[in-house]
Design the sequence.
């Protein structure tokens, strides 16, 4: 039962990574640099949920679990951003009355920076976690 709650917390953390990445793509020119403070504050629940997942899930290599969480969240973010960019390129969709929501997602610089950093960190952690796992498996056990 403990592992189930751990996985649920990992899923929630992945969803929060997705929301963080999506929030980075939203253009808010009226707040200026406050956007980066808001993005930092959004990381607090993400870290809490992820730490709870690590504490509850047994057999979890924290590097591998963190890498998977970050990469899955960034993957979802990029899927939504590509979908929105495709809809924005369609003149029929942009003529609709509620196309204003699509125009909000136009801060591609900040979104790309955040997504790239999260994806690189996730890939690096996943790689390190897998290499440490392989090293542990290759070491002979000392049960004498």
Sequence:
């Amino acid at each position: 039962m403990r592992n189930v709650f751990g996985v649920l917390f990992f899923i929630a953390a992945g969803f929060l990574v997705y929301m963080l990445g999506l929030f980075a793509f939203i253009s808010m020119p009226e707040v200026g640099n406050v956007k980066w403070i808001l993005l930092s504050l959004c990381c607090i629940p993400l870290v809490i949920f992820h730490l709870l997942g690590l504490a509850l899930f047994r057999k979890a290599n924290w590097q591998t679990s963190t890498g998977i969480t970050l990469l899955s969240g960034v993957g979802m973010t990029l899927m939504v951003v590509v979908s929105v960019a495709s809809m924005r390129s369609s003149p029929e969709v942009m003529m609709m009355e509620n196309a204003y929501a699509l125009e909000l997602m136009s801060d591609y610089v900040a979104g790309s920076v955040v997504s790239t950093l999260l994806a690189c960190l996730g890939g690096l952690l996943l790689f390190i976690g897998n290499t440490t796992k392989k090293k542990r498996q290759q070491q002979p056990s000392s049960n004498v």
